[in-house]
């Protein structure tokens, strides 16, 4: 086979799109009804919610961080504050990273709230179901 023909056959297309534009992100099963919220929490690569526990200064400062938020962060703060019964004064939006930070460790409660709001990502199907012929 000719080297130039092989090279052009495997060449990158002229217009390069990022991988995220080509491959859709699987968030939940296709049978779930979409939730109409002004915000969206994207899942991590391991298909879980990006809610993390953070300790600063040898454990004297404890906080919970919510990452990968798209949309209205203040609406998320309002909903989480009402669900967890935590005062809004304990919430903070990081001006640089746009992460939501909450005083105290609330990782489990926030993940349960997100699972009831958006559905449980652990039971979501990440591969299409096979049709047996």
Write a structural description:
- This is Large ribosomal subunit protein mL49.
- It holds the Pfam family Img2.
- The structure is a single chain.
- The radius of gyration is 21 Å and the shape is elongated.
- 11% of the residues are buried.
- The strands form 2 sheets. It has a 4-stranded antiparallel β-sheet with strand order 2-3-6-5, with helices on one face. It has a two-stranded antiparallel ribbon with strand order 1-4.
- It contains 4 helices and 6 strands.
- The protein has a domain at 36-119: Translation Initiation Factor Eif1 (2-Layer Sandwich).
- Strand 5 (91-93) and strand 6 (100-103) form a beta hairpin.
- 26% of the residues lie in helices and 19% in strands.
- The protein is α+β, with helices and mostly antiparallel strands and 133 residues long.
- The protein has helices spanning 3-9, 19-22, 73-84, 107-118, and strands at 39-41, 51-56, 61-66, 69-71, 91-93, 100-103.
What order do the helices and strands come in, and which of them pair?
Blueprint: H1 3-9, H2 19-22, E1 39-41, E2 51-56, E3 61-66, E4 69-71, H3 73-84, E5 91-93, E6 100-103, H4 107-118
Protein name: Large ribosomal subunit protein mL49
Family: Belongs to the mitochondrion-specific ribosomal protein mL49 family.
Keywords: Mitochondrion, Ribonucleoprotein, Ribosomal protein
Q: What's the gist of this structure?
A:
The chain contains four helices and six strands, in the order H-H-E-E-E-E-H-E-E-H. It is α+β, with helices and mostly antiparallel strands.
CATH architecture of the domain at 36-119: 2-Layer Sandwich
Percent helix, as a range, is 25-40%
- Cα-to-Cα separation, first versus last residue: 39 Å
DSSP strand (E) fraction?
15-25%
CATH topology of the domain at 36-119: Translation Initiation Factor Eif1
Uncertain runs: 125-133
What is Rg?
21 Å
Organism: Colletotrichum noveboracense
Subcellular location: Mitochondrion
Keywords: Mitochondrion, Ribonucleoprotein, Ribosomal protein
GO biological process, one term: translation
């Amino acid at each position: 086979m000719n080297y130039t023909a092989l090279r052009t056959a495997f060449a990158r297309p002229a217009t390069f799109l990022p991988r995220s534009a080509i491959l859709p992100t699987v968030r939940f099963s296709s049978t779930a009804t979409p939730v109409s919220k002004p915000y969206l929490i994207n899942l991590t690569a391991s298909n879980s919610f990006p809610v993390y526990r953070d300790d600063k200064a040898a454990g004297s400062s404890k906080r919970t961080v919510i990452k990968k938020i798209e949309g209205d962060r203040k609406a998320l703060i309002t909903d989480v504050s009402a669900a967890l019964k935590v005062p809004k004064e304990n919430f903070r939006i990081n001006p640089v990273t746009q992460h939501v930070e909450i005083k105290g460790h609330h990782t489990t409660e926030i993940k349960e709230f997100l699972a009831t709001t958006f559905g449980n990502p652990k039971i979501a199907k990440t591969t299409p179901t096979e049709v047996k012929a």
